[in-house]
Fold this sequence. Notes:
Number of strands: 0
Structural class: mainly alpha
Radius of gyration: 21 Å
Strand content: under 5%
Largest sheet: none
Order of helices and strands: HHHHH
Number of helices: 5
Distance between the termini: 11 Å
Amino acid sequence: MYKFVLCIVLLCATTMYGFVCSQKLTKRKKSLRTICDGIVRAKSLITFGGYNISRVLQESFKEINLFNNISDNMSDVFTDEFFVKVKKDLCFCDEDVEMFRGFTEVLGITDTAGQIANCDLYYELMKKQLDSAEEKEKSSGRLYKILGFSLGLVITLMIV
């Protein structure tokens, strides 16, 4: 009886782990899509809005709730802790975080034309990351689910 319960719990746990890994890939893809959309909105706000950079960030990225409480002094916002939070909350890989860091560091430094050019550049870079994330989700998403279940099944058969 105990073996049976243990086997069911193990099978459920490994299957759920596979689903969680698959969901991280999906969340990364959705987060990258949101960042790309936010960059496009930021570009239009910079071009036509005349807002300061903190307001541009708040308006452009309100879906991901990263910039809700930022002030006009942006140097205290973009700390290492902020980017660790970005990596964890958005399921970003290190390369995604570095690109997002690069985007946030160049905002507000140049004139309007320079900021628009930076938005275009980082949109293209993030779009490549999004394409990569979509491909990885397509190829690995199902794999993680199947491997989780398969691992649980193998362990269960070994116990029995």
